[in-house]
Please model this.
Amino acid sequence: MSNDNPHKGHRDRLRQRAAADPRLETFSDHELLELLLFYAIPRCDTNALAHRLVDTFGGLRGVLEASPEELSAVEGVGPGAALFLSLFPAVTRRYLRSRTVRAVALTDTAMLGEALMPYFIGLREEAVYVLFLDAKRRTISCDFIGEGSVNAVSLNTAKIVRLAAARKARYAVLAHNHTNGFANPSEQDVSTTRRVAALLQTVGVTLLDHIIVADPLGDSSDPCDFVSLADSGVFLRL
Model:
């Protein structure tokens, strides 16, 4: 009887493929997951597990955006592997945010959107950030304000004003995300924008825009969409 194991050396071969193809263009979703799982599950065949994950969540995006609890419900996924996979969206956001060149003036809507979209990639809940800029419209900071919908009741406007004063900002840009895949502003978004703009004026800060970000629906590979309330004409009615 042959003692040959068809899986012997499989991990080394997959790693060699990754080294030869650093963009991973030749990898399917399940192969990429299998490769990642090597580093969370050191001793077992992760091929079948990768297939189960893709089947359960519909693709790579669904797997990486699943919560640790959802991942742990899949046979073969332990707490360590679940945490490992769930960290990827946060790591991606941090990486993309770190690429922002703070010395560059953000002078138009496209630049503001590009600077702010990384803060919302893969988020499953709505979140609010405020980007503070100096007199030359260079980034001072981008501060997390809180989770939840943007409306005049729940938004911590006092925190925004306090941070604006502490940062010695000249301009600010409010930003939040819509988790339904559509970036169109609601009436609450408009009324909150007006309220925040008026409050910031009390400390000498001009609200330049309110950027609303939405991830694409389903498994689309299209980039995130965003809407500028300034470009939509809302600020003309402030």
Observations:
- Residues 101-237 form a domain with the Cytidine Deaminase; domain 2 fold (CATH 3.40.140.10).
- The chain has ten helices and five strands.
